[in-house]
Amino acid sequence: MRATAVVIGAGQAGLAMSWWLAKRSIDHVVLERGAIANSWKAERWDSLRLLTPNWHSRLPGYGYQGDDPDGFRTMPQTIEFIERYAEVISAPVRTRTEVTSVRRNGDGYEVVTGQGDWRCETVVIATGACNIPQVPAVAQAVPASIRMITPMQYRNPGELEDGGVLVVGASASGTQIAEEIHRSGRPVIVAVGEHVRVPRVYRGKDILWWMDAAGVLDQRYDEVDDIVRARNVPSLQLAGYADRRTVDLNSLTAIGIRLVGSLAGINQGKAQFSGSLRNMCALADLKMNRLLNAIDEWAVENGVDGEVDPPHRFEPTEVEASPPLGLDLTRGEIKTIIWATGFRPDYSWLEVPVVDSKGNIRHDGGVVEAPGMYLMGMPFLRRRKSSLIDGVGDDARDLSAHLASYLGNRSRSPQRVAQAHAR
After folding, report:
1. Residue 280 CA, distance from chain mean position
2. What is the pTM of this model?
3. Rounded distance, CA 328 to CA 332, Å?
4. Pairwise CA distance, residues 152 & 346, whole Å
5. Model pLDDT for residues 311-339, shown as the tens digit of each residue
C-alpha cells in the first residue's frame, strides 16, 4: 500500500495534521493502534476532567459548540469530541492498526503494521509523550507488601487496598489523585518534587484565559533560552472541577493530606525524603507570582485592567516546621504507592536513527533529523501550548507547510526530473 504521508496516531495531534494535509491536497493515511482517541479511552482515571476549559479545545476547522464554554470536559465527553472531529473532517483513519516498525526504504519510508505494510515519502509521528510511566529505580526497593501503580493504571479509590497511600509527585496528576483518595477516607502523604503552582481563577478569569490572551501559550520554542529545560517542566498544578476550585499544596494540607520532600531513596524498607520541601515550594510560589506580574502588566498595557477584578496575590505554600525525612514502609501504614512521576514516549518500533540516549527524538520544532519525518503532540514542540488540544492545530499548520515544501523540492530534484523524462 502507498500514501504520500503516513500519520501515526489518531489523537488530537494526528487528526489536526490530517486536516492540514487534506487542506494542502496531500494524500495520506492515519494509522491508529487501537480506536480513535485510544489513550483517552484506555489510560485515564474515571473522574479525570480536562485541565483546559471547553472553549479552549480548538482544532483546525472545529471547536466547542455547546452551552458551557467555561466548563471542563469529562473523559467520555473528551473522547466524543475527538471522535466527532475525526468524523467531521473525514480523516482517513485505519484503526486497530499497530505500527511495529518504521524504517528507511530508498528515499522514503516503509511502515510495517499488523494489517499490511505502507510505502510513503513522509512520516508524521503523533503517538504522544505519555506512552510509558517513568517509575524511578528506587521502586525496586519497595517492600513486596506494598502495591505500586501509576496514574495510567489508577481508576478510582475503590480499587485500592484499605490503608494509607503515598503519592510520589505533585503535578496535575499527583495532586488530583491525592485529593480524590483522601476524600475516600484513606490517609495520604504526598512526596513533593518540582512543581508548577498556578491558580485556577485569577482576577475573575480562568488562568488559561489569561495565558491565552496575553500570548504566554503562544511563546515559540526558538524564543526561550533553554528549550530542553522548558520541554521538561512539570505540568501545571491544575484541575478541571465544576466549581473551578484551585487544587494546590495548600488545598491538600487544608483537608489533612501530609506533605514531605521528594523521595530520595529507600533503605531496608525505610523511605528517605529530601529536606528541600520548603525550597521547592518557595520556588513554585516565586514563579507563580512572576506569571501573575506578567499578566497584570499585560492587562494594563492592553486596556483590560479596569474590566476585571483587581490584582491580588495568594498565600505562600504552607510547609510544616520540620517535615518528616523518613517513613518506615515495613510498618503496614502505607498499603499503596502511586508513582505520579511522569511519562516518556515509546519509540521502540522506530528503526530510523533519530532517538537520543534519553529516548527522545532529535528534532527542530518538530522537524526530525531524518528527511521527510515530523513529530507532533510533544511538550513545547513549537509553542508552549503544543501538548494541549488547542496547540496542535498551529503546529500542524507549520509542519504540514514544511512537509509540503519538502515534497515540492523532491519533485523538482534533478534526479526526479530525469526519472520523469525517462518514463
Report:
1. 22
2. 0.93
3. 8
4. 14
5. 999 999 999 999 999 999 999 999 999 99
